[in-house]
Write a structure and sequence with these properties.
With 148 residues, the protein is mostly helical. It contains 6 helices and no strands. The radius of gyration is 18 Å and the shape is globular. It starts with a helix and ends with a helix.
């Protein structure tokens, strides 16, 4: 269950669900009167689901490991908050395809920079012309999707 096939399958499913998350959260936000309310309810439901999963898997943090987490390691939820809120706001204005292609382009661009410098404890992966070309192709895809 830890092999590359499972990881790839999981990421494909997660990517598909991310595309569905945008319109779902946009509709939730509309019904609740604001993007912030929608994002809040979305996070509460997600937190409950993770709590149930952690309890079912009997996942418990180790004290020493928790103390070794750097300050920036605690900020993932804040990034997720901005992600969920901005997508719920953008989908009704730009459409799902444009929103998601912009997100992917931004993710890829910053990922190459983070890889290049080995940021946040990752193994450095030098930026190359091929990687930069890949980002430019994704940006071209954004333009094509937007032009639609």
């Amino acid at each position: 269950m830890n092999g590359p096939f499972f990881a790839i399958a999981l990421l494909v499913v997660a990517g598909a669900l991310t595309a569905i998350q945008g319109p779902s959260n946009a509709r939730l936000s509309n019904g609740l009167g604001s993007v912030v309310n929608g994002a809040f309810v979305s996070f509460v439901i997600g937190a409950l689901a993770l709590g149930i999963l952690a309890a079912a898997l009997q996942v418990k943090p180790e004290g020493q490991e928790v103390r070794s987490i750097p300050w920036w390691g605690w900020l993932g939820g804040l990034y997720g908050c901005l992600f969920v809120t901005s997508i719920a706001w953008a989908v009704p204005r730009l459409g799902v395809a444009t929103t998601m292609t912009l997100v992917v382009a931004a993710q890829m661009a910053i990922s190459v920079v983070l890889d290049h410098y080995g940021a946040f404890g990752t193994t450095p992966q030098p930026a190359s012309l091929a990687r930069i070309g890949g980002i430019l192709l994704i940006v071209g895809g954004v333009l094509l999707v937007r032009r639609g």
